[in-house]
Amino acid sequence: MLEHGGRLRAAARHWGIPLGDWLDLSTGIAPDGYPVPAPSAASWRCLPEDGDGLEEAASAYYGSSRLLALPGSQAAILALPRLRPTGATVAILTPTYGEYAPAWQAAGHAVLRFAAAELETAAADCDVVMLANPNNPTGERFARERLLAAADVLHQRGGKLIVDEAFADADDSESLAAVAGSAAASNVVVLRSLGKFFGLAGARVGFTIGRPPLLEMLAAAIGPWAVAHPAREAARAALSDAAWQGGQRQRLQLASARLARLLDAAGFGAAAGTALFRYAITPRAAEIQAALARQGILVRLFAEPAALRFGLPGTEPEWERLAAALGRAA
User: Fold this and answer.
1) C-alpha count within 13 angstroms, C-beta hemisphere, residue 210
2) What is the pLDDT of residue 4?
């Protein structure tokens, strides 16, 4: 099983620091998530089903009715490779989220890696191209027009472009959600998640957007009652609250800029990233991660290239704690 951010209990055991004393900056999840209303009593008694307004709220938010609610976008990452006959050649951006390649390999497909500058070559040579936009962990963004051009090249050979937009909500100007699965982009599949921007990772709600026949196959592969009723209520409320969404975008952009300044002052230079995290390449990544962990601050370590990903602190004391810890770790 791959390691991910947020493994606080393991960190607490390893470093001998009580669980409640940690500042977790390892996940890229918004520190101030959507204020979820209490679930209805009926949500605990009834099986979840369509027709409760979730799909309509999602359609309005993403600009598409061609979507399927899932127990997190991770469910689609695991299921989509199994819907394609074995033996495909799949190009996956590198570095990126670590779950993509194992899912395709486990389903009997060959995986090739490509750098961001090689997108056009990957589209010309492979059956499937999969990437995150913005990319996780680098924060690199692909222009919408460039992605659609790559999708057109893939379409000529029956190929697909799969774009994971888990971090797109704070700035969706390059999103393909509204066109995925349409006549203009029939071979584009988009994954969206409520875990990051909305801070609802524990609800496990995501969406796949694409052609209806593909969504029907995916729904059959996932099975019935995929998203729990209380989670559906929380997601419906979050997706419908445009005022909160606008405020959240402003809050995250300001916090991300502050984090970039803090990391620059700590000697990391101009760290790349998104509104939800900053990514800094440094040969001292492992050393600095350990130094921060000894102070009860968990950040995400990457080996190739050696880098750290910092999520956003949520309170002023947390900002001050990170600044002081960085000073001691430098």
Assistant:
1) 24
2) 63
